[in-house]
Amino acid sequence: MTKIITPYEQSDAGKKQQVATMFNNISGNYDFLNHFLSFGIDKIWRRKAISSLKNLKPERILDVATGTGDFAIESIKRLEPRQVIGIDISEGMLEVAQEKIKRQKLDDVFGVELGDCENLRFKENSFDAVTVAFGVRNFEDLDQGLLNIHRVLRPGGQAVILEFSNPKKFPIKQLYSFYSRNILPAIGRLFSKDNRAYNYLPESIVQFPDGERFASCLKNAGFRKAVCRPQTFGICTIYIATK
Questions:
Q1: 41 with 212: CB under 8 angstroms?
Q2: How far is CA 40 from CA 31, 36, 37, 68, 69, in A?
Q3: Can you spell out the DSSP letters for 90-124?
Q4: What share of the chain is helix, strand, coil (3-state, %, to 5)?
Q5: Please, which residues have CB within 8 angstroms of residue 99's CB and are 6 or more apart in sequence?
Q6: Domains of the chain, with CATH numbers?
Q7: Is the per-residue pLDDT at 182 higher than 50?
Q8: Cis (ω within 30 of 0) for the bond into 81?
Q9: Cα(108)–Cα(155) distance, integer angstroms
């Protein structure tokens, strides 16, 4: 059985509450650190993931674990949907997203709300596409979250999930392991008031069932097709699942 990794091991709170607290603590520096620690490559990953939905031409999109809204905003620019709804368990992250929505005048197409994927309020077949960027490994109940994503998608709709993965080949595997366990936490501590956050993040990547194992999770949730597209030597993977 896979060990459940939580941000604060000494806390009695559940994973969901701990993750929400962690992201509230780092929300102010999240965007800067995300781009800085990935050398800006995360922007390329996002564009590639969103581009995979071009042929689908989704009109209504649900962005799960929307965070500060970058993934949803990029989808608006590239796909021109009629409506995007972003949900997240962190109020701090949503405050940053709302500032971006106001600044970029996206109120008519993009709205955000507090919520989590294991308890979606939406009816069956409500969305053409569901997107998740770097969020599924933080689900408290991964299977329940994927079942809910499948439920709210219309038949023929697609879920596009972008998530970190573990490189398998030498020397990338060794270099990435050293970077994520030593350099990433050290830099994170310099800019973040939450010392634990940037230790939890690489630990959660190691424990996540990436690649074909996650594709199997998607199929078990009801998706008839699940495709894996590794990016940048396997550091990240785009998953495309069709209902």
A1: no
A2: 11, 6, 8, 16, 16
A3: -HHHHHHHHHHHHHTT-TTTEEEEE--GGG--SPT
A4: 45, 20, 35
A5: none
A6: 15-242 (3.40.50.150)
A7: yes
A8: no
A9: 26
pTM of the shown model: 0.94
For 125: left if phi > 0, alpha if psi spans -120 to 50, otherwise beta; the answer is: left
- pLDDT number for residue 3: 63
Over residues 217-239, the mean pLDDT reads: 97
Backbone angles phi, psi at 56, to 5 degrees: -70, -30
Pairing of strands 153-164, 236-242: antiparallel
For residue 153, what are the β-bridge partners? 127
Count of all residues that appear for the chain in the document: 243
Cα 20 from chain centroid?
Answer: 14
Report in angstroms the alpha-carbon separations of 35 from 38, 198, 214: 5, 14, 25
Q: Cα(first)–Cα(last) distance of the chain, in Å? A: 28
Burial class (CB in 10 A: 0-12, 13-18, 19+), 24: middle
* Kind and range of the H or E run holding 79: helix 70-79
- Quote the strand ranges of 109-208, DSSP E: 110-114, 127-133, 153-164
